[in-house]
Amino acid sequence: xxxxxxxxxxxxxxxxxxxxxxxxxxxxxxxxxxxxxxxxxxxxxxxxxxxxxxxxxxxxxxxxxxxxxxxxxxxxxxxxxxxxxxxxxxxxxxxxxxxxxxxxxxxxxxxxxxxxxxxxxxxxxxxxx
Length: 129
Description:
Distance between the termini: 23 Å
Strand content: 25-35%
Order of helices and strands: EEEEEHEHH
Structural class: alpha+beta
Shape: globular
Number of helices: 3
Strand order of the largest sheet: 4-5-3-2-1-6
Oligomer: single chain
Radius of gyration: 14 Å
Largest sheet: 6 strands, antiparallel
Number of strands: 6
């Protein structure tokens, strides 16, 4: 079962074209929010910049591309993993998870429906404590 802070790779089948995706919410009714890490370019949004050492997959300056944030079902993700279309990687640290979560709210490129869903989930979690 994928959990908050877990990561996985998906791509076009070529190892150098895989992107790291991060689950940034706990499952809520079988759904999670994921964000994508991509190679940093000159024009990239730099709300969350990652460097070698932040995660074993990252070998050069990378950024979170909030434009690609998605709400996904856990069952669909597990199906991708089971069929080999995605590969599970190491989880991120709690500190990095918090940076990615804050960035989702800060980014002008986060799809509005993803931002609203994220806020809803995080509000429910806080009220349960």
